[in-house]
Design a protein that fits this description.
It is a single chain. By secondary structure, the protein is an alpha+beta fold. It has 2 domains: 268 residues, Aminohydrolase, N-terminal nucleophile (Ntn) domain (Glutamine Phosphoribosylpyrophosphate, subunit 1, domain 1); 185 residues, Rossmann fold, CATH 3.40.50.2020. It is 30% helix and 25% strand. Helix 5 crosses helix 6. It is elongated and about 85 Å long. The chain starts with 13 loop residues before the first strand and ends with a helix.
């Protein structure tokens, strides 16, 4: 049974993995998906390929289901059913395409006139509706309601003469955010959209026979799990064809999607919340970025002890995603000689499944209590700085503050390591509508938000301070649309409308 989504948090987009030339490719993919479980908890799948020497052809097998990686795969499935030297995998969190449809579980596998193709996609397309209508006119029959299937139809209907050119053409037509791994009879492809909104990295590992295996994965923590070394990121606007086993650049053929490569627009929320702190994202350490977020947050919005009462100030993270930012906040306080301690005052349960709540009980309150508990000795009689990475609707923040106040602190101040979320994401994050966001309810007024959630004060990181906290490189920018409403890729037609229609179909 899948874990519930994070309470009142922006939901992640998905995790993808591709393995080339490893004798236990599906097992490597399984462990990689396990390390990427935080990116999607609704469903997972693996497509494996083995070469049939007797018949001189590649044979493909798939296994996928709803639930967590550890529950979906067992030893027999991985070592017998999914045998082979190549594999691709996917963790699913649905954005476009309903969560309830089992046909939407990736990776997808098709066979057409040029051979077999397996595909796994992280992100959201912005011209989904227009492409669906056009492909319907051309005779395409859709098996799913997800935008990821569009790539397969575009490839299959292409008039280009090679799979490589067909894949490139499909990516040129599709617009939006996509990090892709594609397995064919010939090679493993890894690609990121022209703006590189979603992450994808490349790693390698030497096999016992001296040949080299390659892995493409959403985050580098997958390499650490499987013993692969990080080589580099897949560049924005790049299609990387992996076709050799020497472990050198000779194995890789790099081409661009669009002729001209635009400025990258990396999703800044990967640093703030989505990625694991032990990963390198867009070539940089998530841990270091989050520490800097916390340090800059302290500089911008400090909390001081009361000189009259002498209340001790304690910094507490909302676990687990805010742990590192809270550490940076308290470290910066120490540098500025502000008396402050870093403590784990909220303890999170990692084993929360779906819980039965009687109708007369407060469902939201019990959901928070099954996930968090307080350490009373850390909180009682102290001024608390509760550090979190974001506030979406505000419902969980309100219940968390209520929970903290039961341990009798003198004050509770919330500090948020991102700006107020005011706009929905169109590129693969699942945010509520603008009307549901607490920042819009309260006119982005921190005091109104504090009053609504029961805090003594609320303070957010400014956009300028956020941009100062993340790595700066020539040709590399960030998507901040959820804070600013400035969308780097045009939204051709309403993806939200398409999602509503998909959900109606499921009902």
């Amino acid at each position: 049974m899948a874990l519930p989504a994070e309470l009142d948090k922006p939901q992640c987009n998905c995790g993808v993995v591709g393995v080339f030339n490893h004798p236990q490719a599906s097992l490597m993919t399984y462990y990689a998906l396990h390390s990427l479980q935080h990116r999607g908890q609704e469903a997972a799948g693996i497509v494996a390929a083995r070469y049939d020497d007797e018949n001189n052809k590649w044979r493909y097998r798939a296994h996928k289901s709803e639930g967590l990686v550890l529950d979906i795969f067992d030893g027999a499935v991985l070592t017998k059913h999914l045998r082979g030297s190549r594999a691709i995998g996917h963790n699913r969190y649905s954005t476009t395409g309903g969560a309830k449809k089992s046909t939407n579980i990736q990776p997808f596998l098709i066979r057409y006139h040029m051979g077999s193709i397996g595909l796994a996609h992280n992100g959201n397309l912005t011209n989904t509706r227009a492409l669906r209508e056009e492909l319907h006119k051309r005779g395409a029959i859709f098996a799913t309601t997800t935008d990821s299937e569009l790539f397969l139809h575009l490839i299959a209907l292409s008039k280009e003469t090679t799979q490589e050119l067909q894949i490139r053409e499909a990516m040129r037509i599709a617009r939006g955010a996509y990090s892709l791994v594609i397995s064919t009879d010939e090679a493993l492809y890894a690609a990121r959209d022209p703006h590189g909104i979603r992450p994808l990295a490349l790693g390698r590992k030497q096999n016992e026979d001296g040949s080299w295996a390659w892995m493409a994965a959403s985050e580098t923590c997958a390499f650490d799990m499987c013993g692969f070394e990080y080589v580099r990121d897949i560049r924005h606007n790049e299609i990387l064809k992996i076709q050799g086993t020497t472990g050198t650049e000779a194995d890789l053929l790099s081409t661009t999607i669009d002729e001209e490569t635009p400025e990258a627009k990396h999703c800044i929320f990967e640093y703030i919340y989505f990625s694991r702190p032990d990963s390198h994202i867009f070539g940089h350490s998530v841990d270091k970025v989050r520490r800097r977020l916390g340090k800059n947050l302290m500089d911008e919005h400090p909390v001081y002890p009361d000189p009259e009462t002498g209340d001790k100030v304690v910094t507490i993270p909302v676990p687990d995603s805010a742990n590192t930012a809270a550490l940076g906040y308290s470290q910066q306080a120490a540098k500025e000689d502000v008396p402050m301690k870093y403590e784990l005052g909220l303890i999170r349960s990692h084993y929360v499944g779906r819980t039965f709540i009687a109708p007369a009980q407060d469902s939201r309150e019990f959901k928070v209590k099954t996930k968090f508990n307080t350490v009373r000795g850390v909180i009682e009689g102290r001024k608390i700085v509760l550090v979190d990475d974001s506030i979406v609707r505000g419902t969980t923040s309100k219940n968390l503050i209520s929970l903290v106040k039961q341990s009798q602190p003198t004050e509770v101040h919330m500090r948020i390591s991102s700006p107020p979320i005011t706009h929905p994401c169109k590129y693969g994050m699942d945010f509520p509508s603008r009307e549901e966001l607490i920042a819009n309810h309260c006119d982005s007024d921190p005091q109104k938000i504090a009053d609504k959630i029961g805090a003594d004060s609320v303070a957010y990181m400014s956009v300028d301070n956020l941009m100062d906290s993340v790595p700066q490189e020539k040709g590399i920018g960030y998507c901040t649309a959820c804070f600013t409403g400035e969308y780097p890729i045009p939204i051709d037609l309403s993806v939200a409308k398409l999602v509503e229609e998909d959900e109606d179909e499921e009902d």
